[in-house]
Amino acid sequence: MNYPVWLLDAFGGGTLIAIVAVAHVYISHLAVGGGLFLVLTEIKGLREGSTPILDYVHKHTRFFLLLTMVFGGMSGVGIWFTIALLSPSGTSSLIHTFVFGWAIEWVFFVGEIVALVLYYYNFNKISSRSHLILGWIYFGCAWLSLFIINGVIDFMLTPGSWIENGNFWSGFFNETFWPALFFRTFLCLMIAGLFGFLTSVNIKNDDLRHNMVRYCGIWLVVPLLLLLASAYWYKIALPPAQQEMVFVTAPGYKPMLTWFAYLSPLLFAGGLIMAIVRPQSVVRPVAWLLVVCGFLYMGCFEFIREGGRRPYIIWDHMYSTSILKSELSDYQKNGFLKSARWVKNKELTLDNRMAAGKEMYTLLCLPCHSEGGVLNDILPQAEKYTVEGMDSFLAGVGDANKYMPPFAGNEEERRVLAEYLTTTLTPDRSRIIGEIKKEKVAHGPFDQNKDEYVLLASTDRGMSLSSQPELSGLDFSYGPPTLRAQLIYREESPSVISEGVKLRYAVSTGSGVIKGLMTEGDGYFQAELGKLTPPSDLFRPYNLADIEAVIDSKVVATTRVRVGVSNGFGCRHCHGGPWRSEDSGLSRQTAQNILRIHDRRSGTSLLDTFNNSKIVVCSSCHADSSRKEAGRPEQLGLSSAMHGFHAAMLGETTTSSCSLCHGVGQESHTRSFDGLHNHLAGLDCSSCHGTLAEHGASLLKAEGKSGGELLLAQLSAKVESGLGDVKPRRAWEMEPDCLTCHVEFGEPETDSAFNSWTESRDKLFAHRKGEAAVLLCTSCHGAPHSLYPAASAHSDQVGVLAPLQYQASSYPIGADKRCDVCHTEEMEDEIHHPGSLGEFRNRVE
Questions:
Q1: Do residues 355 and 344 lie in contact, with contact meaning Cβ atoms separated by under 8 Å?
Q2: This model's pTM is above 0.85
């Protein structure tokens, strides 16, 4: 943060490290192991009295000197240049922390150069004893140089107690110092054997060539076995958080771990063949192939080790953005632009938003990402998001995706960076939802003076979302709503008619008309609308159900009710892809992107199923009680998995994430939360369900499965009151209890029902009846989330059809003392619940 930035764009810092650092480290390890190889091979020649072996050592030394001293020295300078370019603050910290360590390392390096030059130029010119002493001096200086650098490198990975005490030795002899030193030492010996193959295959004498190839094979095989043992030691020496990062959390490391696992037996087999089975068959291309495999092996290891530091340059001390962990809260409180030294735009204005966004992008994104490059290209990542989706993602970086540092700025700056990434750096995918054209919907007939019956109807859900699997290929739809109706005979003491009556229904859907007879339930009639699909001709988040009651072949009452069903899942905001049509619908491209991530994170092969034109049904693995699907007992339920994972991934403490996914806000045509709690009382999703983190935690705690423990741990910092205070809740069975706020049906005493759950499914508002045990609550008040007076954006009438039909108002049935809807005599007692004879509190202007 205290240095100007040289933009690398497409080339990217990761590419530089891959090219320069891995190549240098590979050769520098050869410089250590190769020194011992020279000395021991010379001793072998002297003991066997073999002049050809000594001549081989002489020639190999020339090759070794040019490669390690010339290329190794130049690439070493390149390392310093690269790290100073990519992370000047991190480089400065290493220099100041280990200044005397670096001085010692440079002394050893000078000793290496002098000893190796003397060793080469004094072949056959001094005594064998003196010549071997030069070789041992070289190897000693080289290994001690490795000893020093190993402490510095692993300090960046595991600084240990240095974080607290700042002590040189605490940082140097850190948790992974010794396993890393053994690992690198054995790796050095392996690489010496690999490069020994390159010079051995050029020997003209067949017997000598076979002898030396077999000899080099032993150098490869034996250290490799010891290296794998030390690799395990190295792994368990890592703190738990870093083990989880490398081996569990970060999907980007899996390919490197896989390659490392595959290359180990490949190198072992190659060495075994050369050492024992067929050394005579080894030719130059085979030798080069093994050297390349060794390079890839080194690259995999370095990638994994570097990845173990993410999101830090120095673990738990300095982020990859060069911001100290101790300073992060100040950046977030005061704003990034005010704190960053090398920016022009210190304040955000209407005119400089994108210029400021680019500066934040440069300083916060480009340290790890490239722009159009080979490694970690930000463009395909950013182009998937809309502004809203990116803003939610940035709010959560550092949580579920712990390999990224938290956003180091305030909310306004985060929004500006989201806008820059999704509208300027990449094509703008945000689609402004067009104006919703309201339609006029006619309600059913009713003559209060003549009609003997009242037919009240509702659904058990104000909105069901459908991914329309037959079109998208991915099925994670809610269970369809159930249509319910009650026929009331009007008299002084009205009665609910359940015998001698038939209730017929017809629902026009996007795939045709669903119609039939409703079946008798517990004091009501019902029909499960299993094949319900959203309308296809006009995007609106509902269908209309017409119901008629028939007694003795005569229609005695009719009514019409909205059946909420939408295809407005907002997955595209983060997963990319277009709406399937107009402003709605999950597209196959978005579904494909979702499954690709699922496969990468969970090791599944769902994308193959999808690409074979088969529908992927989430509830086949993840239990979904909304559809009565059992799933697999070892897997988290669908609601728990979806909310738990996304709560950990996103950083929102408000309800914007709810709005993006469920289509309840202005970003979607659906706008399904249209009941009085929202538009009159000003409540949002968190008022009843808690924040996204609290909602996810309550569902995960109810399941108590191993897969949920990791997600709960990720949510612990996001639940302000603490996970211990969150009460478990079973999805679709335990919901917020209305009487938590409306004690004794009175005016609300609180604005939050979170953590107060109903005991079971039959206690839900959708299934509950009034105190007289006659009418369903929904018959008079409307469906959950769409309580009367619902204010639909799509129609002034559609959300309140029953109240308009029976009392020419939008208030709940019987509100404002309109008991005459059902009662032919004026009521004096509050039969249905306390307060039912009072004036309705939430007035519509």
A1: yes
A2: no
